[in-house]
Predict the 3D structure of the following.
Amino acid sequence: MSLLIKNGQVVTATDSFVGDIHCQGETIVALGRDLAVPADATVIDATGKLVFPGFIDPHVHIYLPFMGTYAKDTYDSASRAALVGGTTTLIEMVCPGRAEDPVQAYHQWKAKAEGTSACDFAFHMGVTRFDESTPAAMREIVADGTASFKVFLAYKGALGVDDDELYQTLKLAKELGVIVTAHCENESLVAKLQAELLASGKTGPEWHEPSRPVQVETEGVRHLMTFAELTGAHVYVVHTSCKGAVHAATEARLRGVNAWVETVIPYLVLDDTAAQRGPATGHADFEGAKFVMSPPIRAARHQPFLWDALRSRAVSTVATDHAPFDFQGQKEMGRGDFTKIPNGIPSVEHRIRLLYTHGVATGRIDLNTFVDAASTQAAKLFGLFPRKGTIAVGADADLVVYDPGVEETLSAETHLMATDYDAFEGWRVQGRCEAVTVRGEVMVRDGKFVGQLGHGQFLKRQPTHF
């Protein structure tokens, strides 16, 4: 099987040139100008369009039992949505409860993807408790090809680890060469603030952010950095929402800590007024619940800082923290008590188009930074580069042909995600993923999914963070 993409502006994290890409089977075999067209080739004319490496979302939740319910997407809906949005690789968080066997949970999560996912996939393994059985379980999971962990410094009594467990997890990660991704908030402060707000009758979604203010997140990052410094472990702060948290990680890097920072697309384009939507602001009752995630969406003043940090590469990656719950019947579980609103904003389908529209098209970031933040850095940090994350001879033929001249409106009526609402309902976006390939197979054509479910492969990764 041969594929030739011709005359596109090819953009990687470091380069940009007009040329052709020849793919044979699953692999890129040639780059150049005016490449000969093989007799058996499928040809895509990318004249006037951008050609990017397949994008990687390093932080998604697809199968997720959480807060008394389950996330709505499956790998059927999520992988199709991801591909239409230009994402060819998903890295999902495995989040077992504290009482669950981690190896069984890992294989349960993995089975949800195998044979169904249309795009390639990998996992971060959640460590939600650490006891005498944990090291052997984690070694088995790492040997299977999952070379990153996840810890929560939040959700006390559910997914969160205590300081002893955090220390032991980081020590083991350092020994195994595994990077630890971390949700950083001070869970004790969150619990106190939530209780005080509820006791004073402040129960609506608009009180979610005040219950988890920027100080709580910043302190959580500082806490993680102290443990990383003591153990030598490599750490990656997920869904960073505010200036203080980025500064805490940057200060630690100056001390020699191996730390990287992720933000997510909702923080770059939404502000805290979204969670305040309700009758007082001319919106439907309880609509603010659609925008509840943790850490919360912050005041608009944090956005210019986050864009600047992205441009300077103080923030390495832009992910989604895709956690899809319906408004009706799920988000509504928190009526009368905001702490019971399932956290998350469905966004895996829209990340790339929102980042292009509000980043590249506005001049906040250039095309190379766009590719670096949405693909290359994730590939490098999580053991996938140079197979993924770039356009080069020998790399997987994961490619996105992007037409910047198309404008469309986002809506729940047209999205492929399984939720009954779209957080970006009515938003105009610039550009569309005209064609998307996964290992040489055309999965999206004319902006529509045309691929086969089950084409996606589990990506075995070797530890790279010794």
Notes: The CA atoms of residues 359 and 365 lie 5 Å apart. The first strand starts at residue 2 and ends at 11. The chain has twelve helices and 19 strands.
